[in-house]
Amino acid sequence: KWFFCENYNENFPYADRETILKRLESYIKGVLTFVQTQYPGVIYAWDVVNEIVDEGDFRKSIWTKTVGNDFFIKAFEYARKYV
């Protein structure tokens, strides 16, 4: 939960959408850059999002609560940007 809160502190309220999106991009960039640098050519596929649909609708999650139903689109955009 701390990832989604102001100052990365779970005792604080949730950060705003733009802050969470910046964190998401930074995280994806960091992971992809690390793996591509340390283990070039090893990873050939990435699971960018997982289990976002439940009974025909978006699964209720901290992502949908803080960013909205389009969070997965941004995740794919960031992954494509840094892969």
Automatic annotation (TrEMBL):
Pfam families per UniProt: Glyco_hydro_10
Which protein are we looking at?
A: Xylanase
Instruction: Tell me where in this chain the GH10 domain is found.
Output: 1-83
Which key words are in the record? Answer: Carbohydrate metabolism, Glycosidase, Hydrolase, Polysaccharide degradation, Xylan degradation
Which GO molecular-function terms appear in the entry? hydrolase activity, hydrolyzing O-glycosyl compounds
Give the source species: Pseudobutyrivibrio xylanivorans
**Chain's gene name:** xynBMz5
Which one GO biological process term can you cite for this protein? xylan catabolic process
Q: Which domain of life is it from?
A: Bacteria
Give the InterPro entries listed for this entry: GH, GH10_dom
